[in-house]
Amino acid sequence: MDIEGITETQQALIDSGSSVNFIDSQFACSHNLPLIELDSPQGVIGMNSKQLRDSVCFKCHLVFNAQGQCFSTVFYLLPLENCNLILGTPWLILTNCDINRRTLGVLLCHSVEARASEIAPPAIGIPEKFKAFQKVFGNNFFRTLSAHRHYDCALLLEDGKDGPYGPIYPMTLSKMAALKEHIDSKLAAGKKCPSTSSTGTPVTFIKRVDGRLHLMVDYHHLNTITIKDCYTLTRQDELIEKLRHAKIFTKLDLRNGYNNICIKEGNKWKAAFRAKYGHFEPTVMQFGLSNAPVSVPALHVMSLNS
User: Fold this and answer.
1) 263 contacts: CB under 8 Å, gap ≥ 6
2) Per the database entry, which stretches of residues form a coiled coil (predicted)?
3) What is the pLDDT of residue 141?
4) Computed over its alpha carbons, how large is the radius of gyration of the chain?
């Protein structure tokens, strides 16, 4: 280490058991280091837990360099025998150095200022061969409502049955905030609209696997009085049989699947729900409706045929 004002490079003893930094009294005096007298002599306890004969009466402030770093710290004067400087706990805390006990090497960590890169990441474009289908890669296309089609979700009720009208379920503050956010976003997207329906199903929340809240409308009573759609579903064993010799498979992601299917015209009022923030009815198919599962295969068939 190089001490300011002293031409010779000095070696120091690192001692984690020393509560302060020490400098040899004779060394400090011979180099005319500026000394500061303590208000009262301070005793020193040695490794044998006994107080040393010599007390500390002076201290000095040293500025020195080690491994390219500059340090400024206080040393207390004490007669030392085998070294001129002892770097104790204060210096170890200051530097947080890395000591290799196998090689007896000391590595001082340097603080480096990090700056964000000013180089913008390369834009990820759509390959030329997919440009004709550019709309499916964006979000704007899926924010608009689909047109009504023959496979719209129908809600036909049994003769003489009226739609359900249930109480509003109590909610915690966090669930009420999630409910408000859900309703506002769906109203803005046109997926739900205000309702004056004579029915009103209560809503609640369930937790997703990732911990987020998912709104669920309690359609249990509505499903018991709904006439079930008997759309023919493909047999699973036949599908597997057709695939048994296949080696290459294609996975198609039907984005916003349920939101691609509208509720049949004139049926929306039957799926209306009540909540703290008002009375609403969905314009697109909802999870939990008994006829929802059979509407999805119809959408699949239409999409694949087209």
Assistant:
1) 152, 153, 155, 271, 282, 283, 284, 285, 286
2) none
3) 63
4) 39
Give the pairing of strands 85-87 and 13-14. parallel
What's 125's DSSP letter? -
Higher pLDDT, 187 or 141: 187
Q: Is 62 exposed, middle or buried (0-12, 13-18, 19+ CB in 10 A)?
A: buried
Delimiting residues of CATH 3.10.10.10 domain(s) in the chain: 141-244+252-305
pTM: predicted TM-score of the whole model, two decimal places: 0.50
pLDDT in tens, 8-28: 788 888 888 888 999 999 888
Interval 227-236: pLDDT, tens: 988 777 778 8
Q: What is the dihedral of CA 124, 250, 286, 291, to 10 degrees?
A: 170
CATH no., domain 2-107: 2.40.70.10
SS3 42: strand
Residues 6+ apart with CB under 8 A from 213: 174, 175, 178, 205, 206, 207
